[in-house]
Amino acid sequence: MSNQQTKILELLRSPQEANVALAIELCKSMPQLALPRYIESYLRVYRAFFNQALKGIKPKQIAELNQPVFELSDQSLEKLPPEIGILQNLESLNLWDNRIRELPPDIEQLQGLKKLFLSNNCLTQLPAGFARLQKLEELWLNGNYFTALPKTVAWLPHLKVLVMGQNRLTTLPCDLTHLSSLRKFWLFNNHFKTLPLVLCYIPNLQYLWLRGNQLTYLPGAIQQMQELRGLGLSDNRLKHLPQEIGALKNLQKLNLAGNQLTTLPAEIDRLKNLQELDLTGNPIPYRKRKLIRSWLPNSQVIF
């Protein structure tokens, strides 16, 4: 493709209506560019998202599709158009509350995508090429039907936020240790009976939410989570905590509400940065409550 052809395609992909119109006009003298093929792809995408009866697409509508942010939540979408890869400018795509069962392979062509919201759909897997979304920073997959976290997620080097709550997960792949950019991980309302050890070795994880699972104990390896600031373990089945919990020197908020704890290990007094400890709904005797408060004089302890 010549430099001139490349520039015309750049104009066609512009979010500015005037640039799109100029590209269409210039292509009238360049039939070898096969512009109608690109126009047809835009038309199919526009039909899928906005107007199924549309017969022809205008520069203004193409420019709309070239915007960096798409809000398509609660549109009763059952699938995405195969031509979605034409949307090269996309940085944020919101598809919350639809009925999408699978993603088309061409979603991997959205190389600039940083935020992808797919909460409350009907997904069970991701395309094999999903890891090609190398700029992705946030991935929201809560409220779907995943029984396993797709391993391809582990190869997203810039992923900072991963939301997998309200699925059917029981284990996690060991490859998640490659997620060195991951800071926040939501795993609430899944089916975990034990804490997956891989969570203890995600190097820079700061916030972890595991509310509403079936955890009965925490492994001593939890001491490896040195960067952790927030840990949510409410509504599980914990009867005791390991003494290694005291090694989480950066922990600021610890939610243990709705468990079966009757006491805490004395090592909890090493959590010098802890600001809030929620123990609501645990059968902790009064004398133990007083002792716990004495261990954490600078923390708000809630019973």
| Shape category | elongated
Order of helices and strands: HHHHEEEEEEEEEEHE
Radius of gyration: 25 Å
Provide mean pLDDT, rounded: 95
Overall tally of domains:
3
CATH third-tier fold name of the largest domain: Leucine-rich repeat, LRR (right-handed beta-alpha superhelix)
Strand content: 5-15%
The helicity comes to 10-25%
Q: Please state the second-level CATH architecture of the largest domain.
A: Alpha-Beta Horseshoe
Largest sheet: 11 strands, parallel
* The first-level CATH class name of the largest domain: Alpha Beta
Under CATH, the homologous superfamily of the largest domain reads: Ribonuclease Inhibitor
Count of extended strands: 11
Distance linking N and C termini: 68 Å
Structural class, from secondary structure content?
alpha/beta
Oligomeric state of the chains present here: single chain
Name the strands of the widest sheet in spatial order.
1-2-3-4-5-6-7-8-9-10-11
Instruction: Give the helix tally.
Output: 5
* Weakly predicted, low-confidence segments: none
Describe this protein's structure.
With 303 residues, the chain is of the alpha/beta class. It folds into 3 domains: 1-66, no CATH class; 68-157, Leucine-rich repeat, LRR (right-handed beta-alpha superhelix), CATH 3.80.10.10; 192-303, Ribonuclease Inhibitor (Leucine-rich repeat, LRR (right-handed beta-alpha superhelix)). The chain is 17% helix and 11% strand. It is built from 5 helices and 11 strands; from the N terminus they run H-H-H-H-E-E-E-E-E-E-E-E-E-E-H-E. The chain has helices at residues 3-12, 17-26, 35-49, 59-65, 286-295; strands spanning 69-71, 92-94, 115-117, 138-140, 161-163, 184-186, 207-209, 230-232, 253-255, 276-278, 300-302. An 11-stranded parallel sheet has the order 1-2-3-4-5-6-7-8-9-10-11, with no helix packed on it. Helix 2 packs across helix 4 (59-65). It is elongated. The chain starts with a helix and ends with a strand. The model has no long low-confidence stretch (mean pLDDT 95).
